[in-house]
Every structure is written in C-alpha cells, then in structure tokens.
Amino acid sequence: DAGVTQSPTHLIKTRGQQVTLRCSPKSGHDTVSWYQQALGQGPQFIFQYYEEEERQRGNFPDRFSGHQFPNYSSELNVNALLLGDSALYLCASSNRGGEETQYFGPGTRLLVL
Amino acid sequence: AQKITQTQPGMFVQEKEAVTLDCTYDTSDPSYGLFWYKQPSSGEMIFLIYQGSYDQQNATEGRYSLNFQKARKSANLVISASQLGDSAMYFCAMSLNTGFQKLVFGTGTRLLVSP
To answer: Which residues of A fall within a CB distance of 8 Å from B91?
Structure first.
C-alpha cells in the first residue's frame, strides 16, 4: 500500500521564479492538505483540497495556489518566489473529506536564492 | 484561535527508559482532536497517536501513550522503553472537529536517546 508521495525531493530556485510541487495521496484517500515548515518551526497550514476545490486557506498570500486532479493528486504552485519561501513543503492526505487522520509525505525542500 | 505550546526545546533520555514530552493547548471549542507526530531528520511527519476531546480513556498505541488532562489543557506524550530510533523531533498538533482537519502545530521537541 503506497503512502503519500511528493516530487521533487529537493528544488533550488531564484527570487521571482515560479515553482510547482506535486503530491500523490495515500491509496484510498480523497483529501490533500499542504503545509509549509520553515527551519526550526512547526508546519503551517497552507490550504486543503477536496473534490477538486480549495476548502480552506491558511494565512498565505495569493502567490500560493493549488489544484487537485480527478485522481486526487495535487499541485502546489508558488509564484514570484521570495527568500522567505525557503522551507520544507509537506503534503498530507486523509479520507472522508478530511475528517480522518492526516498522513504526511516526505516533503519537498525548496531553497530560494 | 487555537494554539499549541511545547515548552521543551530538547529532551535527553537513556535507552530503555521512559520519557514524557509536554504539550499544552488552547481553544474555546468543546470538540477537538489532539495528535502527536514524529519527524526524523528525513523530514517525513509520522503519525503516532490521536486523542479526541470527548474520549474518556487516554489513548495508547504500542509504546506511546497520551496523558490527556482536559482541565489543565494538556496532552503529554509518554514514550516507554525508549529506543535509539526514537531520536527525532516530536510535534504536538490539534484540530477542531469542524468536519475537516486543519492541523495547528507546536514548535516541537527534539528527543535524543542515548545508549
């Protein structure tokens, strides 16, 4: 039973560029949440996708956007990258529209130079 | 607003001993869930244990138990018989039972298990 997978594992970008991160949920899960974890901090909720729609959003600017596909996989897009966007980006999947426990992927480490 | 506080930046324990990691939370909602996750240096957050606010019994999962004291708003994680592989960051998190989960995390506790 495959767990949550994320790609790429590492990424280096420069300020002003755009980035797309990808996530495939655990088999049988229909909900994907994205979190940003800055160095030395706990993860911060970005947004959650269910039925291909954004359900709720954390305190992140519009530069952060996402998408969920019919197969429940998801993308996180960040435009106009800032140095402060350097972080570990974690994807979590859950079932029943997000009512159940979230299981996390290994994350994508993004470095913005 | 929800808030999780973990006051121990680091903890040390010897192999085979028990250790308690502290977590206090703040919410005015009566219905919520409390979680503990383990994060090894690889980065993946591993789910350990869950406690619902209406659960009468403390949750247990193998060597992990959650000491839930509702009146004190604390949800401490107890790891019994520590192993070297338990060395990692540990995060306490909570969510409101609004029909979907948005997890709010604490700042974490780094646990080091020594031989």
So the answer is: 42-43
Tell me what pLDDT residue B99 has.
Answer: 62
Shortest Cα–Cα distance, B84 to chain A (Å)? 21
The answer to whether the beta carbons of residues B113 and B82 sit under 8 Å apart is yes
What the block records as the tokens of B58 is: 């403390």
Q: Which residue of B has its CA nearest to A34?
A: B102
pLDDT tens profile A72-113? 999 999 999 999 999 999 999 998 776 788 999 999 999 999
| B41 neighbourhood in chain A, CB within 8 Å | none
- In chain A, which residues have their Cβ closer than 8 Å to the Cβ of B66? none
Whether A64 has a pLDDT exceeding 70, the answer reads: yes
- For the segment A21-43, the average pLDDT, to the nearest whole number, is 95
- The answer to whether the beta carbons of residues A59 and A36 sit under 8 Å apart is no
How far apart (Å, rounded) are the C-alpha atoms in residues B71 and A2?
40
Q: Are B31 and B48 in contact (CB under 8 A)?
A: no
